Amino acid sequence: MAEVLFFIAGIGAVAGAVGVASLRNAFYAVLALVFHLLSLAALFLLLRAEFVAAAQVVVYAGAVMVLYVFVVAYVGGDASPVRHPNKTQVRAFAFLAAALLFVELAIATLGSGLKAIDGEGAPYEAGFGSPEQIGELLLTRFLLPFELASFLLLIAAVGAVVLARRRGGITTDDERAVSFREALRPAGTGTMREGVRGLIDQPVSAPTGVHDAEAMGAGETGTRGDRVSTAAGTGASSSPEDQG
Amino acid sequence: MAIGWYLVVSALVFCIGAAGVLLRRNPLVVLLCLELMLNAANLALIAFSRMHGNGDGQVFAIIVMVVAACEVCIGLGLVVAIFRRRLPIDVDELRELHG
């Protein structure tokens, strides 16, 4: 029974991987990756890693893939593909490199002196792979990696917000609309229309110094009251300088 | 099943992911193929954890998943920023780093 389940899940994982690497539509590639992740979770269950399998399904196939789907829907799939003159050579090189890598890994796996590779693994003890065991390891022996991972998540969240902000992040020389609502809007926010059309412009009212100070986070509060005083003080006629 | 079979599946998925990173030109799909490679490494880690019968490999795999989530966060933020600047969503066109 375990062999049958292993082959079903293994074929599913490899098929999902091939789908991710070969499907032209990015949306279908994301769905193929979801299928691959679910097959991998089945393999983890066969290896008695219950908690990792559950985390894989919930965190990866759930949360991360929803993020991917949103970004694919926002950006869209492939643009019109530009024909490269040496595309066939690049493809041949990629396939050759991957095949050589697989040969090398197979030699490393088959030629290793590990006798336990041919076996079923260590005898199963009750509680192996359970949340209790993982939690105890994370909070005793691997406490430092655990804390570092939490710091890394915080840094990544802040970085993603700074990168994907509507304004004040990366600016271009696009045309800037002047309106009263622009003056009242906090720095770093934008409208739904800009989100659809991809317009980037800076807040009209803020001079460069104030805008710099607010780009560091003071303007991210989302309240409108703190901007009104500065907007009224500068007037809507001051032209903002480019920061790019 | 013997542990070696799991390692073979892991190697296959890793090589497919590497080929995808080399072949595809959409940065979103390149990120997806990077996820494939990380997941293949995770499968190998958990197979070895089963082989030795202790949970260290599983903790390692969880930390790898955290790092992969961070990588996705930053990568997708970069893709959105590139899209907002109306640059081409194509890694071959994005060779220069000047703004």
Describe the structure.
The complex is a heterodimer of chains A (244) and B (99). Chain A has 244 residues and is mostly helical. Chain A has helices at residues 2-22, 26-46, 50-75, 87-110, 131-140, 143-163, 180-184, 192-197, 208-215, 225-234. The longest helix of chain A has 26 residues, at 50-75. Chain A is extended. Chain A starts with a helix and ends in a 10-residue tail after the last helix. With 99 residues, chain B is mainly alpha-helical.
Overall structural class of chain A, as computed from helix and strand content, comes to mainly alpha
Tell me the major beta sheet of chain B: none
End-to-end distance of chain B, in Å? 53 Å
Which percent range describes the beta-strand content of chain B?
under 5%
Note the quaternary state here.
heterodimer
Spell out the key features of this protein.
A: mainly alpha, extended, B: 99 residues, mainly alpha
